[in-house]
Amino acid sequence: MGAQTRVYKRRIKSVSSTKKITRAMEMIAASRIVKAQRRVAASEPYATELTRAVTAVAHGSNTEHWLTTEVERPTRAAVLLITSDRGLAGGYNSNVIKEAERLTNRLVGEGREVLHYVVGSKGSAYYKFRDRPIEQSWTGFTDNPTYADAKMVSEPLIEAIKADTAAKGGVDELHIVFTEFVSMMTQTPRGDRMLPLSFEKSAEESAEVLSKGSQVLPLFDFEPSADEVLDALLPRYVESRVYNALLQSAASKHAATRRAMKAATDNADELIKTLTRLANAARQAEITQEISEIVGGASALADASAGSDR
Amino acid sequence: MAELHVELVAADRQVWSGQASLVVARTTSGDIGIMPGHQPLLGVLETGSITIRTTGESGEGTVVAAVHGGFVSFADDKLSLLAEIAELSDEIDVQRAERALEKAKAEADAAAERRADVRLRAVAGVH
């Protein structure tokens, strides 16, 4: 075997073993999407009922509460960014980080100080590399988040918004940036304001509730009191929103990984095809060369013997 | 007879849903019984057990569940019970709850003790 053919054969072998790995990762991600999607669906009833209850309190009572009223001049905002722990997911992490940066710039432009809370090691690595302060970061559960994880993440956020803004670490607003799982093929990064409940948002939500129930929201009786119900309800609302965002991000991450790995497998296929063609051509060239060498050698011998006869 | 539609949901799943004639739950200000036609209500639940007297399609019977914190919301004969953790009495692992109770007693962890106690009571059907 000639040197050229050997080089091609070696490259084909290495590309095929890479292809095997990416194909396996694609399959794993595909099976995980289904699981993650099921978990998103399972968390839906709680989120819907909770949103309904929050809307009911926000509209069915006229109490002023620190969680629903907008501060006149907000000075500080917390941004929770949800990324993944591992890469190999195409543009998944950079897209969501870009969205967070956009939101941060907008908030800073409006004169607010932004405190960063980050989930996932890719996000915290981004901030650490640029030497920018992170209030708190969490890692280790982004592939498979549980409600307990969401609770752990929400706790400092709720504390920060409860605290007086003048105090250290107190914030007026709570934003969340995550990747929404729209469909198997589409995942869009989005930034939402969680608290205070925005009026357009709650108007939209109440319109939804209204169209579903097709009647006016009833006046609620609160047990023990509207204030206490809100005190208990809104932290749960934050937790449920964070939980939902974590689940959607996990599903999106798996979908992005699947897509990236599928592209890698397809590229490997393409590469193997080209390399095989080149290897075949090299082999053919080798054979041709050998034949011409033999023919050349034979005719040289024939010429030589013909000359000696004379 | 009038019935109410009950949805018992935990943070990560739907635990039970069906028709009922009476639901008894423990709010922070005491036990509350809800029957069809009750005034719209939103309350905070304590760690305790919930008793649902089922009727109609769900069949006559009683469903008992242990819940740990949450809310009860009721409007036009639709009752939602939201809990971070909710378990039906027949899902509860009695031995595990007993072990948890002993451990909580040994460590003097009042909250954990209460949780384990509620689980055991839900199994026994005592409110």
β-strand percent of chain B reads over 45%
Secondary-structure-based class of chain A equals alpha/beta
Q: Terminal Cα separation of chain B, in Å?
A: 26 Å
Q: Could you tell me which chain pair has the largest interface and how many residues each side has?
A: A-B, 33 and 26 residues
Tell me what portion of residues of chain A adopts beta-strand conformation.
5-15%
What is the CATH level 1 assignment of chain A?
A: Alpha Beta
Strand-helix topology:
The complex is a heterodimer of chains A (310) and B (127).
Chain A: H1 3-60, E1 76-82, H2 92-109, E2 113-119, H3 121-129, E3 136-138, H4 147-162, E4 173-181, E5 187-195, H5 199-213, E6 221-223, H6 226-309
Parallel strand pairs in A: 1-2, 1-4, 2-3
Antiparallel strand pairs in A: 4-5
Chain B: E1 4-10, E2 13-27, E3 30-34, E4 41-45, E5 48-54, E6 61-75, E7 78-88, H1 94-107, H2 110-124
Helix pairs in contact in B: 1-2
Question: What descriptive keywords fit this protein?
Answer:
heterodimer; A: 310 residues; alpha/beta; Pyruvate Kinase, Chain: A, domain 1; 5-stranded mixed β-sheet; 6 helices; 6 strands; elongated; B: 127 residues; alpha+beta; ATP Synthase, domain 1; 2 domains; 5-stranded mixed beta barrel; 2 helices; 7 strands; 23% helix; globular; ATP_synth_F1_gsu_CS (chain A)
